[in-house]
Sequence to fold (306 residues):
Amino acid sequence: MLKSLDPLLTADLLYVLRAMGHGDDLVLADGNFPSASVAARTVSGTHIHLAGADIVQAAQAILSVYPLDTFVEPAAHRMQVVGEPDTIPPVQQDVQRVVDAAEGRSRAMGSIERMAFYEHAKRAYAVVSTTERRGYGCFIFKKGIILPDGSAA
Amino acid sequence: MLKSLDPLLTADLLYVLRAMGHGDDLVLADGNFPSASVAARTVSGTHIHLAGADIVQAAQAILSVYPLDTFVEPAAHRMQVVGEPDTIPPVQQDVQRVVDAAEGRSRAMGSIERMAFYEHAKRAYAVVSTTERRGYGCFIFKKGIILPDGSAA
Fold:
């Protein structure tokens, strides 16, 4: 393991997060999402499976090092509940809290209809999946930048 | 780039550092060290070249996340100057300061004769090389552990 880094940030996951650049999208998925097949179509073709982690743990680990884009709003999106586009289930409320905490301010996520989410996800850089049991625990995070002084923007 | 991580910690380098475990050795080398050929014999066969970085910058970046072993002393070694085993040239004094700062206390490096250093290096996990111009800018760092509370030991 490494100093100051969440243990869930494995070698493979750190590789992907560091290889990504400004505007690249990362998919973060629950246990039912078709992670392997979607990942096969992504830019890197990479599927990282954090077996044993739930989506909150995974989001916390990733956002501890991964800056969300500040050039666009929203920079994070959730998958819409089918037929209930305005419903925000508890799993998404939990991840919204992780986003807000990591960013140090409220940054409401956008939402994407399920089938459109799949298409969007295929254009991402990679897919990180978890064993989250709750449905609709699926998100897309757009990467931001680190300024010369080390701060995220 | 990523929050709180030195830009020299590239995707490839982060991968190697995170993949290593307790007691694994990492070679950190200057621009003249036979890094490619030695790396080919290491456990992972990996040679990461930080082209443009000097040895102090590389050591600072690595030790910002990489815990030195506390089960053995010394956990870090320098290559001895040929014929002058007790001479500690400025490049090694510089890296000693980086080690002490990263560890938060004085941890004097051991030294290994040049040919023995090559043999030891071949048993390491990987080699990280730099474009350090000063000779004898070659080191072996043994990896330590992260305790459950997140502190290094």
User: Anything to note?
Assistant: The beta strands of chain B are 25-29, 46-50, 76-79, 110-112, 126-130, 139-142. Chain B touches chain A through 24 residues (CB under 8 Å).
